[in-house]
Write a structure and sequence with these properties.
Elements (H helix, E strand, L loop, with lengths): L3 H21 L6 H8 L4 H7 L3 H21 L10 H15 L6 H5 L11 H13 L6 H7 L6 H4 L8 H6 L5
Helix pairs in contact: 1-2, 1-4, 2-3, 3-4, 4-7, 7-8
Length: 175
C-alpha cells in the first residue's frame, strides 16, 4: 500500500508541472521549479518521474484517458454500438481533435526512455481498439500502430505552435 505522502506527491508533481508548463512552456521549466511548486523535495520528481519527460508522460496519460473514456462509454460512433469502420473514423477524428492542445507535451514524452510514449496505457488501449476494429483487414496490428504515428509531434508539427497541423496532415481543415 502506498504511503499517504507518496500518493500526494505522485499527484502533486504532475499537477504542478501542468500549471508551470501552461504558464512558461514545457521547455522552460526545470524540475527543481516543479518540485518547489509541488511542495516536495528537489529529489522527489526525479525519483518518481526520472526527468522532465516523466511528468509530461504522466500528464499525457491522464489526458488521453479522457479520450479512452469516450471510446468505452461515449455515444456512437466513437463509443460502443456503431459499425467498426465508423468507430475507427470517429477515433481518428477525436484523436486529431485531442492532439493540438497537447502538442507541447508530446515531444517531451518522446524524449523519455525509448518507446515510453508507446507504453502509456491509453496509447496501448488505442492500438488494441483499432486492431479490434480493423479485424479482417490486412495486417490490422500495423494499421493500428500506423494511424496515429503520422501525428507524432516531430513528424506532424516540428513547430508545435502550429495548432492546425494535425488536421492538415489528415486533410481536415483546421478550425
Amino acid at each position: 500500500m502506498e504511503r499517504a505522502d507518496a500518493a500526494r506527491n505522485r499527484a502533486a508533481v504532475p499537477a504542478a508541472a501542468a500549471r508551470l508548463f501552461a504558464e512558461h512552456g514545457v521547455d522552460a521549466v526545470p524540475m527543481d521549479q516543479v518540485a518547489t511548486a509541488a511542495g516536495v523535495g528537489k529529489g522527489t520528481p526525479f525519483r518518481r518521474f526520472g526527468d522532465r519527460s516523466g511528468p509530461a508522460v504522466a500528464l499525457l496519460d491522464a489526458r488521453e484517458r479522457e479520450l479512452q473514456d469516450g471510446i468505452l462509454h461515449g455515444p456512437p460512433p466513437l463509443g460502443p454500438g456503431g459499425p467498426a469502420q465508423e468507430r475507427a473514423a470517429a477515433f481518428v477524428a477525436a484523436y486529431l481533435d485531442h492532439l493540438p492542445p497537447h502538442l507541447a507535451l508530446v515531444p517531451m514524452s518522446e524524449t523519455a526512455a525509448p518507446g515510453a510514449r508507446y507504453r502509456i496505457g491509453a496509447y496501448r488501449f488505442w492500438r488494441r481498439h483499432l486492431t479490434v476494429l480493423r479485424a479482417g483487414a490486412p495486417d490490422p496490428e500495423h494499421t493500428a500502430h500506423a494511424l496515429p504515428a503520422p501525428n507524432s509531434s516531430r513528424r506532424c508539427c516540428p513547430n508545435s505552435a502550429n495548432d492546425g497541423c494535425a488536421r492538415a496532415s489528415s486533410g481536415r481543415p483546421a478550425q
